[in-house]
Amino acid sequence: xxxxxxxxxxxxxxxxxxxxxxxxxxxxxxxxxxxxxxxxxxxxxxxxxxxxxxxxxxxxxxxxxxxxxxxxxxxxxxxxxxxxxxxxxxxxxxxxxxxxxxxxxxxxxxxxxxxxxxxxxxxxxxxxxxxxxxxxxxxxxxxxxxxxxxxxxxxxxxxxxxxxxxxxxxxxxxxxxxxxxxxxxxxxxxxxxxxxxxxxxxxxxxxxxxxxxxxxxxxxxxxxxxxxxxxxxxxxxxxxxxxxxxxxxxxxxxxxxxxxxxxxxxxxxxxxxxxxxxxxxxx
Length: 283
What we know:
The chain is of the alpha/beta class. The chain is built from 14 helices and 8 strands.
């Protein structure tokens, strides 16, 4: 499903004083599942796996976090992972979602950890795809380091679609179509999105600030956990797996290492095994 179709199938709602894009897919009485996307893209990353989850009987709720995709992207704003968690909580309240499974990727894993910290009993199961669950293991690529640095506020305006394509292909392990990457570019840049990338990347610092509480939230979570991991990811790839296995020995771990090994975007690069693993886990 292309980005324009994805957006046409959703709606907008005021949450936390901001215009937020959301979608709900699947039977109204299905098992609630919330999907939280990563940086710098949008909920459209989940489009390749949503049909399988819906077919298995899940009620899927997705949203574009503040500053991402089709949601509001206020300039000169202090974007916080903690506020993103509050926006999701408000969305759950609006749609009377009492308990839900939570699936997250990249930037979204930190939002999920904050939600686990606030109320783990609300989360029926937690699945994580490549992300910085442990800040000391997070290895941002060059463009992220530059945008996060002092010159980032200027450099963000100089970014182009070819540069964006090159950066994403640095973190992919498997081929991804030009159409898919173009949609990722559109989701990042719509609503004047280039102007907020430097501020969004402050999540790197926020992860360090809250590292102890988010590590504790993850490692003390009493429900079922699954990790679906692309080992070819230079940012949060194979080097993270020993820590996950050591600290969470009872968790399910799926390593997508079949040649060519999957990289940073498992749900985009290799959706079939990701969808199959989630369908099995969420049952």
